[in-house]
Each structure stands twice: as C-alpha cells, then as structure tokens.
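Subject: Glutamate--cysteine ligase

B.,
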Amino acid sequence: MIQDISKKIAWLKANPKMLKGIFRGIERETLRIQKNGNFSKKTHPYLIGSALTHRWITTDFSENLLEFITPTSDNIDYLLSFLTDLHSFTASKIKNEYMWPFSMPYFSNDKTHIQIAQYGSSNLGKMKTTYRIGLKNRYGDLINTISGVHYNFSLPTFFWKNWTENKKKENNSDYISAGYLNLIRNYYRFGWIIPYLFGSSPAISPNFLKKTKTKYKFKKNKEDIFYLPWSTSLRLSDIGYTNTKILDLNIMFNDFHQYIESLKNALETPSKKFINIGLRDIDGNFKQLNTNILQIENELYTQIRPKRTTKNGESLVEALKNRGIEYIEIRSLDINPFSPIGISKNQILLLDLFLIWCALIESPKVDKTDFLLITKNWEKIIYEGRKPNQKIYINNKYETKTLIEISDIIFKDLNEIALVLDGNSKNFLYQTVCEEIKLFFHNPELTYSAQCLNFLTKTGIKKTGLCLARQYHKEFIRKNKLNLNKSILEKETIRSHQKQIQIEKEDFLSFEEYIKKK
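Prediction pasted inline below.
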C-alpha cells in the first residue's frame, strides 16, 4: 500500500546534513473590511506602497484583497516574525479597517461591490488588472475573493544530488525537476492530509451555493450560513475553489518536458467557453487577456504546482523550461483563524515533515484513471473528512483503508524524519508536533475545521470574524511599536511608488501591442 522507506530514513539518519538548508516562503491573503464587517470600499492604501511594485505587500484579485509575501528563508522564526511585521505595519496604516481572519468571505447579500485590483497606467499594471477582469468574467467575482495561504518549499540542492539515482545520466535541473515531480505526485495521492488537519472552511455563505449543483445536503444556521457536519475545507471544493480541470489539460506531473508542453498548450489553445465571453466589450475595453484555456500561468489553479523564480521579462514557462523546477508551491492551506497571521509554526513544521516524506516515497506515474481516484479521495476529505471511520481509496477503487490506518503508517515515518531534523537543530520541535497532530486522526474534534464549525454554528461567522479581527488588529497595533522592520517598510513604500512612476514613464508601446508581445 505505502512503500516501506525505512532504508531511506536510515540513509537520512546517516547523512543528517542533507536536510540542512530547507528554504521556505509564505504568501498570505486577507480581505480588508470595514468595522461593521462589510467589504472595504477604499482603494489599496497609499501609505503601504504600490501594489504593482512593492516587494512584500500587494493585492490579489480585488482592491481590498491584501497579499503579504515574505522573503525566502531557511529560518522559520524569521519568516513568521517578518510576516507579523508586515501585518503590524499595515494595521498601523489602516486604523479604521480590519483584516478578515477567515478564508471564506462573509456576504450579507449578493450586491456586495467588489472593485477589481488596480495597478496604475503602465502596460504592466493594465495587464494585471485585465487578467483579473478575465477571472471575473470567467468564474465570477465572489469566488475570487476567497483567501488562502501559499507555502513555498525547496529542499537543498545537495539533497537532490545525493538522493537521486542515475543522476549522472541527467543534467542538474532534470534530476531536481524529476524529484520535485515525484513529490508533487505523492502530494496529490496523500496531500488530503493537509485539509483534514488544517482545513478551516467548513461553512460557506449561501451566495456561493446559488449557481452550484451539489449532491451534499447542507445544513443552515440562524445566520443563513450553510455547512456540512463533517466538512473540512469547502474553499477547496467545486463550490468555493475554482479549480482548472487538469485532467482536461492532460497535466499528470509525470514528466517534466511533458508538463511544460501541456502548460504551453493550455496557454495557446482557445477555449470555446471563453471565446463566447468575447475579447472586448462594445466600448473596446478588454474583457480578458485572451480567449485561451489559461490567460497566464497563474490561472492554473491546483493544490500544488512547480515554480521557478523568473528573470526580468521572463514568463514562468520560459523560466521552468530554461532552468527547471526550483521549488514547489502548496496552495491547499486555508487561512488559520486561530493565528493572527493566518499560519502557525506547528503547521510549517508538519508541512516540512510531510513534504520531505513525499520526496522520499517512490511515486509511480499517474494516468487519468489514477487521477480520478485521487480526486475522489480529496472530495471525500473536503466534504466528509471527519466522518467516523472515514475510508479512502488506496491503489485501486476496490481497496480502501480508514484514515486512522493510513495516518498511523505515515506518522510513523514522519516521526523518524522528525528525529533527523530535531537532531540538526538540537531540539524536539518536530517530534512534539508529530505527537500532537497525530491525535487529530484519533480525535477529529481537535482538527481546525471541527473547532471552526463549533464556534461558527454557535456564534455565527460575522460575529466571530469581527471579534477575531478586532482582537488581532489590537495585537498588530501593539506589536508595531516594536516592529524591527518598520523603517525598511517605510523606505519600501517610498521606493515602490517611485518604481511605479518610473515604469509608467518608460512605456512606449500601446497596450494592444504590449499584449501581443506577451
């Protein structure tokens, strides 16, 4: 069922330095709201910098959807501290607004005005806004205000050099890319463990259900919030999370070059559905960047995806093709409402262990039949993950195991990996997290989703959200007095505005010409 990796773990124990130098990065989204809980109607605050050019504070889909981006680092405490400083700095500049602490936005009605993010008059800025107009026309604006946390992760190059078999037959980027694809396939097979443990969106606003057919019978509380008794992360479901059908795109993550070609094909192939939307409105304004299956690479919404830092003027596809996979991006994390910054250290420690495990386990190539089975497992966990004695498919559609049976095997390995990592840092953090989080499978009430559902059904999402938002805002204002990065962020605010002006001055092509060149 699950490969015995005791020999591989023994190799790690004999070579513990192979896991020194793990780099991570965090991207956290959060909606700016008014003090009454409604969406902020204000534009992106000038005092926190230009959303187009700021290195660490930008916007996602809408003007009020903030995105905080940390630098990459091999120090978890530094990452969390920097992320806290970004929140504190921002809170100090938006004193009459709060940051919404949940992934799922709250709508009292479907007439909520959502202003698409604006990035100035440059061609680059217009392109970013037009891409978001396309998202609205393709999928709707409510869905695009759903927030999440993205976790970027890379293993040391010397880990891959010493780990990968037949490395002499491949060039440097090829064997590293093959290793990351192995990890990605395993994440699809077993990554449902993340929404089970950390899913925090078991309830949803009725507005999201109006245009969606579902076989699940939702319950309703007095606040008109719909929920399922065993659900974990409705954000990741067909109801909440707009997921491009990677089966239709024939992206199986089996071969690096095939992945690149499949992604290029999606970027270059017109979609009948999106052709029907049209490219421009009657006034000549763009309704989307193009009518292809994907406007740009970022539109490939998956639970995990391969990434590479791009050079100036380079697309992600070009960067991957030229230099291979550099890191992976986990996109299946809900905002953690129990943390002011949306993610906790324990989550990072567990993710580290699990992703290393995914790299070690051999991963057979996946065909469409396999992927359909994988999709069914994720669906089970998303909608009914905490159901007593819940089972999922293993290997084939006729063999099932309970979550407890599978988690016992996985956590036995994770604990062994924890010994290696704790040995490197001379503490017991990873082992402690293993012991604590393993209990979530034996007692589902400990999961984030169960705790969320408990207070959401009793107190309501608006009241709970506002209470947490106020509490966290006060914490951020207090912490900003000790913000070690305050002067750096003030300087970055000024630099970002100057950079935007410079970009706008240097444009010489019309927007139409600029789009054609992209």
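The longest strand covers residues 23-34.

T.
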